Amino acid sequence: MAKLYNAVSAEEAVKVIKSGDHVHISSVSCAPMCLIEAMCERGERGELKDVHIHHLHTEGPAPYVDSKFEGVFQHDAFFVGSNVRKSVQQGYADYIPVFLNETARLYRDNYIKCNVALIQVTPPDEFGYVSMGPSVDATLAAVENADYTIAVINKYVPRTFGDGLIHMSNIDIFVEKDEPLETAAPGQPSEIEKAIGRHCAELIEDGACLQMGIGSIPNATLSCLTNHKDLGVHTEMFSDGILELVERGIITGANKALDKYKMVSTFVMGSQKTYDFLHNNPRVLMKDVAYTNDPFVIAQQPKMVSINSALQVDLTGQVCADSLGTKFYSGVGGQIDFIYGASRSKGGKAIIAMPSVTAKGVSKIAPTLTEGAGVVTTRNHIHWFVTENGAVNLYGKTLQERAKLIISVADPRFQEELDKAAFERFGSHFHFVKK
Questions:
Q1: Which residue among the candidates 59, 102, 193, 236 is catalytic per the annotation?
Q2: FRET partner for 395 with CA separation of 20 to 30 A, picked from 40, 97, 107, 151?
Q3: Residue 336, CB half-sphere, CA atoms under 13 Å: how many?
Q4: Structural domains of the chain ordered from first start
Q5: In angstroms, how far is CA 252 from the centroid of its own chain?
Q6: Do 266 and 289 contact (CB within 8 A), yes or no?
Q7: DSSP 169
Q8: Per-residue pLDDT tens digits of the chain, which is 435 residues long
Q9: What residues form DSSP beta bridges with 308?
Q10: Are 28 and 174 in contact (CB under 8 A)?
Q11: Would you say 220 and 307 are in contact if contact means Cβ atoms under 8 Å apart?
Q12: Starting from the edge strand earliest in sequence, which strands make up the sheet with 94-95, in order?
């Protein structure tokens, strides 16, 4: 079959980027490194200034946040990943607080311009369609609104179905570069994370629809679901942890109200085994983030269960998940999208799960949040709270009732200290009694 496009070099492609432009980079494992490197080379030669960079989080190097590019590239991302965290904390890069479901709206409603979209796609099929593979998220909206879309054709991008199938006519410039995607090997959960996973799994019923991300706690939870039946997946992302449940016939999607029998996500990050699983798999739908993370879509799934993590929780149930005091660590992401959606679902459960102490032995349950810490999930939104010490439901509880419940799942070493703080806050009649 004759080639359906004319490819140019990455260096030639990025010449369309002008000073002052807003550039969107495809997210997570699909960040096109050859275009990023070529753009940064132009920056080093002094050809660009005041270029705004937008994306969710990306894996791999992010050279545009280096301090040497101050005044050249302005990183204004929708999430703070590990590769840009230090630069954001030092002020060389920045972050736009936004619910994940609204990131696409920023482009579609022109709150943020998109002059150039840098994406990575599969080779075209016989009908001229390419697939955005494991990363649709807000990138689809960027492509729809960009003045120029530059696509790297990469045979290693898995071909996925759903909203990420786009026609070549939507792409302005093509570059060819075959290189494996960034991977994330699943880590082994600690004993504490295994305990958290067991407590979460006990809350999940047969026929539930799951949202959980990457990491040891989601994997530990999934490993405890091997005796469940007819689970579904509607999530913003998934990773290797679900593969065994699919292979065992436990994830079927038979109980879903929307996208029945399909696994729905907006991006995927995992090992090569996960990317192989995605390739040409009609059971997986990669959808626009405005759909996957819409709380009112999520709420339509019966028994919707969301499991999200936290950095710190106070005695009233306020959840900080994006910052350590004034230092930004991650972002709002989809936590509220799914907590609100799951809590409105018939039979749904919204879960915040975290170890009760940090790796350094500091209690993550505190009388009050650290000064400067942001509230991602409010005390009004929180329902289930899980640590290695148990699971408690805070919904409908008074401030004093929930303080007692939260203290009950704190590390025993800190319970007396937390009890004293609650006593000082709520009055002499407050007293936590250990079980």
A1: 236
A2: 97
A3: 21
A4: 7-176 (3.40.1080.10), 191-426 (3.40.1080.20)
A5: 23
A6: yes
A7: G
A8: 567 789 999 999 999 999 999 999 999 999 999 999 999 999 999 999 999 999 999 999 999 999 999 999 999 999 999 999 999 999 999 999 999 999 999 999 999 999 999 999 999 999 999 999 999 999 999 999 999 999 999 999 999 999 999 999 999 999 999 999 999 887 789 999 999 999 999 999 999 999 987 788 988 999 999 999 999 999 999 999 999 999 999 999 999 999 999 999 999 999 999 999 999 999 999 999 999 999 999 999 999 999 999 999 999 999 999 999 999 999 999 999 999 999 999 999 999 999 999 999 999 999 999 999 999 999 999 999 999 999 999 999 999 999 999 999 999 999 999 999 999 999 877 777 776
A9: 352
A10: no
A11: no
A12: 7-8, 173-176, 148-153, 116-121, 22-25, 51-54, 73-77, 94-95
Question: Mind giving me the DSSP string for 339-360?
Answer: HHHHHHSTT-EEEEE--SB-TT
Task: Please state, in angstroms and rounded to a whole number, the distance separating the CA atoms of residues 233 and 231.
Answer: 7
Query: Residue-wise over 175-201: b if at least 16 C-beta within 10 A, else e?
Result: bbbeeebeebebeebeebbbbbbbbbb
Task: State whether residue 60 is helix, strand or coil.
Answer: coil
Does residue 313 contact residue 364 with C-beta atoms inside 8 Å?
A: yes
- 236 tagged catalytic: yes
Which DSSP string corresponds to 75-112? EEESS--TTTHHHHHHTSSEE----GGGHHHHHHTTSS
Written as six digits, the tokens of 61 are 């190097």
Beta strands in 185-338 (DSSP E): 209-211, 232-234, 237-238, 263-265, 267-268, 284-286, 304-308, 312-314, 319-320, 323-324, 327-328
Residue 324 near residue 80 (C-beta atoms within 8 A): no
Q: Which two tokens stand for residue 139?
A: 């990138």
What is the Cα–Cα distance from 312 to 318, expressed in whole angstroms? 8
Of 150, 148, 146, 145, nearest to 130 by C-alpha is 150
> Nearest 5°: CA angle at 106, between 105 and 107?
90
The SS3 of residue 34 is helix
Q: Which two tokens stand for residue 122?
A: 């599969």
User: What is d(CA 389, CA 217) in angstroms, rounded to the nearest whole number?
Assistant: 14
Nearest of 397, 412, 345 to residue 209 by alpha carbon: 345
**Scanning the structure block, which residue is given the tokens 């270029």?**
51
CA distance 218 to 308: 9
Question: Which amino acid is located at 406 in the chain?
Answer: I
Helix (H, G, I), strand (E, B) or coil at 195: helix
Q: Measured at the alpha carbon of residue 374, what is the angle toward residues 370 and 377, in degrees to the nearest 5?
A: 115
Cα distances from 1 to residues 121, 128, 159, 165, in angstroms, run: 19, 11, 19, 20
d(CA 111, CA 344): 29
